[in-house]
Here is the input.
Amino acid sequence: MDSALERALDIVARGSSRGRERRAAILDAVRRCVPFDAYAWIMTDPETAVGADPLAEVPDLSRLPELIRSKYLSTRNHWRSMPGPVATRAGCDEGEDDPRVAVLSTYGVTDVASLVLGDRYGLWSFIDLWRIGGSFGEQEVATLTASAPRLTRMARGLAAEGFVDDARTGPDGPAVLILQPSLVVQRATSATEEFLAKLLPHEGPPVPAAAYNVAAQLLAQPTDGDPPARSRVHPGAGLLAHPRGGVVRRRDRRHDLANDTGGPDRPLRREPRVLAAGGPRARRAGGGP
Here is the structure.
């Protein structure tokens, strides 16, 4: 590993930061050695590899659903199929039909370094580093590759922090979101806002980022053999939640958004439904329901 990056990560490891604050500190350390203009670091369910807890610094967060959707639908440098821990756009066919390429081009992104942080215990997270103007050089890719084992251990430690207990409890009642295929929220239960605020605390209205990831996986899976559209989220306080996706099919003469239909004149509308488990499904890790 680059000695300067190793020293910077040592300082982060000795510090008192936790959770997203620690992730931001790790990215600052990486950025000093390998510059980038924007990023997305998504913690994942280690079993399903579905995103659960994203941290992002991108030019327009209002387009977050579009960004997440394109990441799951893209086949370029997909975190489940990358042959190594780091890949860039330089080694890919351009593929004009790829949804991720189309979205990133609107930001002026010229290269993306994708990192997968996984080990024999599971896949803990993936990171996309954006560069606007220029590309990542061989030495920079080598630095990121050499740092991947250390970053994986740090990501696994961050996941473990979610089991640290305190006095917070989960919301009462189920949290359910119904999303359009574009991931625009259509409806939600009354407990949803409280639940989302615990999953991704920040100023302003809650962002259903975990739900976007589950729904995007639901849209991306063409067969039953694909990873399930669910993730286990550990927002801290020892809480363990289970966002999981399903499909709402309804008859609609005006729209045919389904992969299958209910007949030539009565198409079924196919919409992601995310059950972001609250109440009895959000339980303290290691405890009962």
Observations:
- The mean pLDDT is 75.
